[in-house]
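Subject: Protein record for review, amino acid sequence with backbone structure tokens
Why sent: The fold of this protein is of interest and is recorded here as tokens.
Notation: Tokens come from a learned vocabulary of local backbone shapes, not from coordinates.
Attached in line: The record itself begins immediately under this heading.
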Amino acid sequence: MAFEMYAEVILTRDVPESGLRAGDVGTVVERHVVPDAGEEGYSLEFFDMTGNTVAVVTLPASALRLPTPADRPAVRALSA
């Protein structure tokens, strides 16, 4: 599936090295080929609730999905 630039997308798997979990919402900031993934990929930016960038990662399209009407916003606090 192709995602539009600046679209909000949802992670379908954890990315522990970046502190991200399945269900986190990110913004598409670039579209390109992910080395060694064999599929199209995307650079995504993730923000905290105050608008600060918390992670920028590159992932294959298979790790993402579009939001649906069944999705609800939620907050998860990081432990100190």
